[in-house]
Amino acid sequence: MAPPDGAEFPDEFELIAELFAPLAAGAPGALALEDDAALYVAPSGHQTVLTVDAMVEGVHFLPDDPAESVARKLLRVNLSDLAAKGATAKGYLLVTAWRDGTSLEWMRAFAAGLAADQQIFGVVLWGGDTVRTPGPATFSLTAIGEVHEGQMLRRGGASAGDGLYVTGTLGDAALGLMALRGGLEGLGEAHRDYLAGRYRLPEPRLATGARLCGLASAALDISDGLMADLGHLCAISSVGARIALDRLPLSEAGLAALALDKGLIETIAGGGDDYEILFAVPSDREADIALVAAETLTPIVRIGTVLAATEGINLVDDAGQPVALKHLGYRHF
Amino acid sequence: MAPPDGAEFPDEFELIAELFAPLAAGAPGALALEDDAALYVAPSGHQTVLTVDAMVEGVHFLPDDPAESVARKLLRVNLSDLAAKGATAKGYLLVTAWRDGTSLEWMRAFAAGLAADQQIFGVVLWGGDTVRTPGPATFSLTAIGEVHEGQMLRRGGASAGDGLYVTGTLGDAALGLMALRGGLEGLGEAHRDYLAGRYRLPEPRLATGARLCGLASAALDISDGLMADLGHLCAISSVGARIALDRLPLSEAGLAALALDKGLIETIAGGGDDYEILFAVPSDREADIALVAAETLTPIVRIGTVLAATEGINLVDDAGQPVALKHLGYRHF
Lengths: 333, 333
Fold this sequence. Notes:
Two copies of one chain form a homodimer.
Chain A: H1 12-20, E1 38-40, E2 46-56, H2 67-84, E3 88-99, H3 104-121, E4 124-133, E5 138-148, E6 163-167, H4 172-180, H5 189-200, H6 206-212, E7 218-221, H7 226-237, E8 239-244, H8 252-260, H9 265-270, E9 277-281, H10 289-295, E10 300-308, E11 313-316
Parallel strand pairs in A: 3-4, 8-11
Antiparallel strand pairs in A: 2-5, 3-5, 6-9, 6-10, 7-9, 8-10
């Protein structure tokens, strides 16, 4: 890799020492990143939850996304998976495949993004691997969390009659991606910036997820879009669902976008990258949800009802009439 | 991604169901890959060891390497990290970033390679992520193992006077890569095939590593080349070392290559991808090593001695005279 300024570029071990070792400080099990392995044991009465997600430049993030937000999004999408399990986040392993020619400045900003989010979410780097690639930058992150034994939230478990809820607001990230690609031209700059920020920096709902243990009958985080992920939850739980389109929680910017173009409801319900939690709650526990929302300072809205599998998945409008959406989620292949 | 035969290409979820779900059978914590997370707890008295390594097409494997061996190498280089920690391998998380246009046949062969090695090494797929990339195929794998509490082998811990040992033979993989790239022309086909096989399919020394717990003072697996990894062990242990070049264990094919060109000793000592264990043993425990070799059916050879840090790292020839090598390991950046 040609150093951009003619100076000698740090080798793998110098990069690890400069960029990553500081992120491992305070985690005894990271072994100061000297051992190419991390050592860990869950506290008594707990189980370990492991999850991994990858991001490829040009596929999962934009080539001109800032390095800080790429790193933070990578961490956050994995923390969102832990949140949807009701797990407490503890540490992570990081694989960075840097595109040839990546500047040291970009790498430093990437590490700075991780450092900022480590403070916010109380996680520490435990280990990883750093390589170079002639292709697009590719990152993957394995997040490790803990749940009380037997308390992990699952995708299967929803029953007909359960209420269906989501945290936060939907569609912001998908609209933000449109804005970053030059779409949504009629929308004001403040709204465009807000939506772009939601695309770049999801908010993992860790506190809310932890409070849902023992309360939600099924949960997942919305990464492929509401309709696609609802489909997963229903398939694995062997249930159907009815969703009231007018109940979908929208941000002010999302409402403004929808006012410009009613067709954007497709993007809101079908786009991805929300990283909000979709969950089901048995009807006799629904009264507790307002308390969870208040305690975790997180908006939670009921968007529908779990039905029998034979009912399928139905979208209805204000008047209870069926609505058809064309695109039911992001297709990876 | 354009399906090669005009048929509809499976989407992400169909691929997971066909290729990966069978690899997760028998692991309750994999949750049938339905939950985008794995659930795990180490048995009482044990600690969990986590390690991750990535492989990029054109950097860590050749574009025409068979899919089976790419997958198996990916698993094995990570199992080798566990072996060097003395850990027992349990499960793994897999990230596959398939190059656009990868055929379903190639993906199936990749999964078949993993299935074959799962049988050999007793590990099971616990989870992962599968995405596409417009760049070179990129894979990463997080391996999870277990050690008895406090028994994990470390890189730091070697002391002056300890013996230095390696498992297996050195240099085969680096020579094999030369052969695959059209080098080593004078070498017979059987030898070339043997070396290529060692490049493509390393042998993780799990049984030997486990037996070294409580016996070796320091250990690591040789991935960057003997001299580079010896350098790491010495730096982290704050020691020096003397290595007898004529003691390096060579395969028959390695000996034949060296007979053709004495200069290949640089490749043997400096090349990478050996995935043999380099370890140090206090002099009062050296008698046990022959027993470990016999019990684990693994050749183990003493190649040198740990010295004080002030002595540096010395290579000596048959007559005990210093030898200089030009390249002391693979430089990643």
